Amino acid sequence: MGEDGDYGRKYVLDPVMVERVAGRGFRTALDVGCGEGRFCRTLQTLGIATVGIDPTATLIERARHLDPGGDYRIGYAETLDVAPGSFDLVVSYLSLIDIPNLAPAATKMVAALRPGGTLLIANLTSFNTAGLPDGWTPDAHARLRFHIDHYLEERATWVAWRGIRVQNWHRPLSTYMTLFLENGLELRHFSEPAPRGGDPDKSDRYRRVPWFHIMEWQKPAS
Ligand SMILES: C[S@@+](CC[C@H](N)C(=O)[O-])C[C@H]1O[C@@H](n2cnc3c(N)ncnc32)[C@H](O)[C@@H]1O
């Protein structure tokens, strides 16, 4: 991944994720599914104290190696063990699609927020995950088309990415929206960010089909 992130992070998600956080007065953040901790370190440059959690031990080891003073913990979102109400900001940066048991994970993330706190999510859109694992396939004229199917069927799909096999969950968008609404959160921001620069071919792909969305939810102050 590197500290700059891949194309989608660097040119599509990061600009909006940083805009949503900078200058808002957040002092503490929990990054759920932090991976190598790249976004924790971005938050630290904005003056925010971070805790990163991820169940993949090798990724947490890498995060600790890159940031020896950082707070990185091995753990699952579903069984998050942090003090309730202790974070101004909880972040899920492309981790909801990896989490098998979403309902307990959402409850734990919301519990970790202080009243008035913010849950910031970057995720693959459900219209994109409905195209996994094949996604782009050539049509009869060798033109690439993106195929979506079985949209309403929740399912896990194995995908290969840069030589790594991971299981991604497809869930209809309503599953995510209903879950956070039922947890009492209020939607403050929803966007489908467009690429801002980088390789023109990649930019074109990210513009042709639904790819990412960013959601910001707020826990009521009382
Ligand atoms: C696509 S990666 C994103 C990592 C990081 N946020 C980033 O942007 O580079 C998804 C992460 O979710 C983690 N993950 C998988 N299952 C999880 C779970 N049950 N709870 C929390 N994180 C999980 C994976 O280990 C992986 O690091």
Uncertain segments: none
Classify the helix fraction into a percent range.
25-40%
3D shape = globular
Number of helices: 7
Instruction: Return Rg in Å.
Output: 17 Å
Total strands: 11
Structural class category? alpha/beta
**What would the average pLDDT be, to the nearest integer?**
95
Distance between the ends: 39 Å
Could you tell me which ligands this complex binds, including any ions or cofactors?
S-adenosylmethionine
Order of helices and strands: HEHEHEEHEHEEEEHEHE
Question: Tell me about the biggest sheet?
Answer: 7 strands, mixed
Structural commentary:
The protein has 222 residues and is an alpha/beta fold. It is 30% helix and 30% strand. The protein is built from 7 helices and 11 strands. The protein has helices at 7-21, 38-45, 57-66, 102-112, 126-129, 173-182, 200-208, and strands spanning 28-32, 49-54, 71-74, 87-93, 113-124, 136-138, 144-146, 155-161, 164-170, 186-191, 212-218. It has a 7-stranded mixed sheet. It has a two-stranded antiparallel ribbon with strand order 6-7. A hairpin with a 2-residue loop joins strand 8 (155-161) and strand 9 (164-170). It starts with 6 loop residues before the first helix and ends with a strand. The model has no long low-confidence stretch (mean pLDDT 95). Residues 1, 32-35, 38-39, 54-56, 59, 76-78, 93-95, 98-99 line the site of S-adenosylmethionine (SAM). S-adenosylmethionine (SAM) is lined by residues 1, 32-35, 38-39, 54-56, 59, 76-78, 93-95, 98-99.
